[in-house]
Amino acid sequence: MSDMEMLLEVKDLKVTFSTPRGTVHAVSGGSFSVRRGEVTGIVGESGSGKSVSAYAVMGLLPANGRAESGTAFFGGRDLLSLGEKELRKIRGKEISMVFQDPVTALDPLFTIGSFLTEVLLSHSPGMSKKDAAKKSVEMLAVMGIRDPESVMQRYPDSLSGGMCQRVMIAAALLCDPRLLIADEPTTALDVTIQEEILSLIQRLKDERDMSVLFITHDLGVVARLCDRVTVMYGGFVMESGSAGQIYEGAVHPYTKALLSAIPRLDDREGRPLAALEGEPIDPIDLPQGCVFAPRCPSCTEICLRERPEATDLGDGHSAACHLISKGGGTDD
Ligand SMILES: Nc1ncnc2c1ncn2[C@@H]1O[C@H](COP(=O)(O)OP(=O)(O)OP(=O)(O)O)[C@@H](O)[C@H]1O
Ligand SMILES: [Mg+2]
């Protein structure tokens, strides 16, 4: 795999938050990559550090958050070392983000039309209002929205959640980004709309030579969308690989547990997947060894003592687990 194909490469990202309770270790070992024209999924339970990783890369951490270390190379530049001014030029234009809750992400005081044209004009100051409006209407049509001219006149609260999410994706794509970061873009939507939005993202990716970083807690949802999958837990990457390696050849006990929690296709009630036993870790007080050890069915003594390093299993597949580095595998 040549480096030319690598669009975003995040290595050893570490993000903390200062809080009155103490330092929150939100991401301690965030490494993942997105290749050109591919979809990488970041999967993990609530609190595993998925959103924080994305926000850090975009330079959008809240004031109490800090990217302590790591690199995030995008087109030859380390995003983590850029200033706000440079990042603002990249955000929305080269990298766009779609958030979890489409309805609150839209300002209720602006029509869809004024929102979309403003997005365009802020990145292309030379563009006329008329051209911006025309381009916005076209993009709404690409999103499969019927009668886009009339949708331009409407306010967000008169649109369904699915429609709002299409508008958000339209906004994200208006400047033809090379990378779309989608943070649980379908969680707030019902199952049929979820499917439609996923197909839409898949189609747009193919048509526009765009890459996608798709964040979700649902391994089932990404099964057909992602080329590569990074599984996170407690701010650490547990396992990474191609979709095939993860879905058919997972070696990490956490990945296996997540996989076994995927509801059957005929049982899609949209319920949360993390039906795993035990409590997630406290990010203020990380365990000394493997962060998953307290919940791991295969936990051994070394797991409680030492953090496992990522073991390279070949062909881009890696996992951080003592049972694997010892060569024993984790067949249970
Ligand atoms: N502003 C903040 N201040 C303090 N802690 C934070 C802040 N934002 C996030 N965290 C903590 O960072 C950790 C990672 O959070 P993150 O939002 O990345 O999880 P996630 O994997 O996206 O989960 P979800 O699936 O629920 O969206 C969590 O422990 C969370 O409580
Ligand atoms: Mg999140």
Which series of helices and strands comes N to C? Answer: EEEHEEHEHHHHHEHEHEEHHHEEH
User: Could you report the average pLDDT, rounded to the nearest whole number?
Assistant: 89
Give the number of helices.
13
Strand order of the largest sheet: 6-7-8-3-9-10-12-11
Name the structural class.
alpha/beta
Approximate strand percentage? 15-25%
Number of domain modules: 2
Tell me the CATH architecture of the largest domain: 3-Layer(aba) Sandwich
Sheet having the most strands: 8 strands, mixed
> How large, in whole angstroms, is the Cα Rg?
20 Å
Distance between the termini: 33 Å
- The H-level CATH homologous superfamily of the largest domain, spelled out, is P-loop containing nucleotide triphosphate hydrolases
Annotation, overall tally of beta strands: 12
Helix content: 25-40%
- Which CATH C-level class of the largest domain is it? Alpha Beta
Bound molecules: adenosine-5'-triphosphate, magnesium ion
Shape: globular
- CATH topology heading of the largest domain: Rossmann fold
